[in-house]
């Protein structure tokens, strides 16, 4: 019996070590053993937040959105008088190849987001941060690669056509809504919530309009990636949820227990209340899981910034309390890893 237990223990340790190696390889790629995206967790370095901190954080996000829509619609960044004294020219700006209908959406949203930048700068006055370095070119390709867990060829561009433009817009709008929703309880000045709530409402209108366009195209296959729009959006939604570390995102289509499909027009919780995200969670999304990078290569301007990753705690190899019954769990875990390695191929 002792020989059997000893053999069982050795085999269990071997299996768990193999599982651990498989997990390590997946985590290096940004994946977990269930095939979802993984991002290391960070927190934001900050003193007690002031309204200025919160509005400047929002201003960074508005700089990003305003420049994306302005470039897509007009082929140029927002006017330099909105950048601040040391504001930076965004990278990757180009006019999108849009039909007249999609172009009308792009122009309307560009004007709204530019108005948001102007409003926040006026509200903040001399405390307004300058426009940071923004990447609205290659960062979209990096985000798409992270979402699908592979390198797309050619690299994804939101400027290629109507559907690609709306997919690019989808990345921002839901994140913007959750950012304002999360910031609202933190605001102390009686006049500031009205500004934030008004901007939140318009961002939500934008998000709904974009979802409506994507739902209409949900079964369309995107060339050359050979994947349907709904699948691409599901991958983006999973990426954002994993980056923020919570169940706070939804794609375009969900299937009920009765296998019936339903469109997700307004993403929210079980009470149909919009999701909230903290500044830390939003930074994880726009930095694509890095301390800085993604859509903000040098990070955002202002007092809110993510702290460096803490080193992972050492693994305690002294615990060998593995039981014979854990063989099956270890084998099952490895099977789950193997089954999910291919990921979503687009």
Can you tell me about this structure?
There is one protein chain. The protein is mainly alpha-helical. It has 2 domains: 1-40 and 326-346; 42-308, Up-down Bundle (Ferritin), CATH 1.20.1260. The chain has 9 helices and 6 strands; from the N terminus they run H-E-H-H-H-H-H-E-E-H-E-E-H-E-H. The strands form 3 sheets. The chain has a two-stranded antiparallel sheet with strand order 1-6. A two-stranded antiparallel sheet has the order 2-3. Strands 4-5 form a two-stranded antiparallel ribbon. 40% of the residues are buried. Mean pLDDT is 77; it is low at 2-43 and 307-346.
Rg measurement, Å: 22 Å
Major sheet strand order: 1-6
CATH uppermost class of the largest domain: Mainly Alpha
Please give the number of β-strands: 6
Strand content: under 5%
State the helicity in percent bands: 40-55%
The biggest beta sheet reads: 2 strands, antiparallel
What sort of overall outline do the alpha carbons produce when their principal axes are compared? globular
Which structural category fits the helices and strands?
mainly alpha
Number of domains: 2
Keywords: Signal
InterPro entries: Pigment-catalase-like
Protein name: Desiccation-associated protein
Write a concise synopsis of the structure shown:
Keywords: Signal. Residues 297-320 are annotated as: Disordered. This protein is mostly helical and 346 residues long.
């Amino acid at each position: 019996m002792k020989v059997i237990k000893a053999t069982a223990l050795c085999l269990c340790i071997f299996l768990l070590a193999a599982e651990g190696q498989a997990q390590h390889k997946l985590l290096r790629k940004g994946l977990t053993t269930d095939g979802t995206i993984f991002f290391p967790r960070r927190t934001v370095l900050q003193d007690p937040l002031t309204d200025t901190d919160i509005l400047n954080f929002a201003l960074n996000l508005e700089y990003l959105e305003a420049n994306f829509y302005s470039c897509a619609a007009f082929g140029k960044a927002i006017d330099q008088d909105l950048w601040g004294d040391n504001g930076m020219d965004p990278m990757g700006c180009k006019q999108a190849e849009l039909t007249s209908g999609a172009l009308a959406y792009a122009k309307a949203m560009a004007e709204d987001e530019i108005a948001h930048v102007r409003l926040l700068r006026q509200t903040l006055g001399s405390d307004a941060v300058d426009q940071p370095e923004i990447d609205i070119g290659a960062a979209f390709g990096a985000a798409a690669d992270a979402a699908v867990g592979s390198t797309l060829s050619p690299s994804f561009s939101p400027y290629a056509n109507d559907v690609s433009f709306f997919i690019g817009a989808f990345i921002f709008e839901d994140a913007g809504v959750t950012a304002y929703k999360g910031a609202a309880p933190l605001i102390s000045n009686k006049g500031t919530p009205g500004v934030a709530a008004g901007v939140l409402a318009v961002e939500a209108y934008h998000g709904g309009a974009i979802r409506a366009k994507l739902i209409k195209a949900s079964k369309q296959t995107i060339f050359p990636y050979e994947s349907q729009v709904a699948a691409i959006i599901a991958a983006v939604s999973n990426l954002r949820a994993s980056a923020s570390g919570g169940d706070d995102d939804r794609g375009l289509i969900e299937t009920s227990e009765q296998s019936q499909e339903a469109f997700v027009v307004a993403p929210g919780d079980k009470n149909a209340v919009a999701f909230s995200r903290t500044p830390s969670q939003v930074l994880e999304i726009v930095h694509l899981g890095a301390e800085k990078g993604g859509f903000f290569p040098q990070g955002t301007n202002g007092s809110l910034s993510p702290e460096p990753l803490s080193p992972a705690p050492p693994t305690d190899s002294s615990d060998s309390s593995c039981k014979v019954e854990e063989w099956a769990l270890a084998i099952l875990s490895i099977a789950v890893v193997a089954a999910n390695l291919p990921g979503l191929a687009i």
